[in-house]
Amino acid sequence: METLRQRWRHIIFGTDTPAGQMFDMLLIGAILGSVIAVMLDSVSSIREEYGVLLYAAEWFFTLLFTVEYAIRLWVSDRPLRYARSFFGVVDLLSVIPTYLSLFIPGSNYLLTIRALRVLRVFRVMKLAKFMGEANQLGIALVRTRRKIAVFMFSVFVVIIIFGSLMYVVEGPENGFSSIPQSIYWAIVTITTVGYGDISPQTGLGKLIASLAMITGYAIIAVPTGIVTAEISAARVSMRYERECPGCHRHSHEPDARFCLQCGEELPKLSLKGPDD
Amino acid sequence: METLRQRWRHIIFGTDTPAGQMFDMLLIGAILGSVIAVMLDSVSSIREEYGVLLYAAEWFFTLLFTVEYAIRLWVSDRPLRYARSFFGVVDLLSVIPTYLSLFIPGSNYLLTIRALRVLRVFRVMKLAKFMGEANQLGIALVRTRRKIAVFMFSVFVVIIIFGSLMYVVEGPENGFSSIPQSIYWAIVTITTVGYGDISPQTGLGKLIASLAMITGYAIIAVPTGIVTAEISAARVSMRYERECPGCHRHSHEPDARFCLQCGEELPKLSLKGPDD
Amino acid sequence: METLRQRWRHIIFGTDTPAGQMFDMLLIGAILGSVIAVMLDSVSSIREEYGVLLYAAEWFFTLLFTVEYAIRLWVSDRPLRYARSFFGVVDLLSVIPTYLSLFIPGSNYLLTIRALRVLRVFRVMKLAKFMGEANQLGIALVRTRRKIAVFMFSVFVVIIIFGSLMYVVEGPENGFSSIPQSIYWAIVTITTVGYGDISPQTGLGKLIASLAMITGYAIIAVPTGIVTAEISAARVSMRYERECPGCHRHSHEPDARFCLQCGEELPKLSLKGPDD
Amino acid sequence: METLRQRWRHIIFGTDTPAGQMFDMLLIGAILGSVIAVMLDSVSSIREEYGVLLYAAEWFFTLLFTVEYAIRLWVSDRPLRYARSFFGVVDLLSVIPTYLSLFIPGSNYLLTIRALRVLRVFRVMKLAKFMGEANQLGIALVRTRRKIAVFMFSVFVVIIIFGSLMYVVEGPENGFSSIPQSIYWAIVTITTVGYGDISPQTGLGKLIASLAMITGYAIIAVPTGIVTAEISAARVSMRYERECPGCHRHSHEPDARFCLQCGEELPKLSLKGPDD
Question: What is the ipTM of this complex?
Answer without folding.
Answer: 0.80
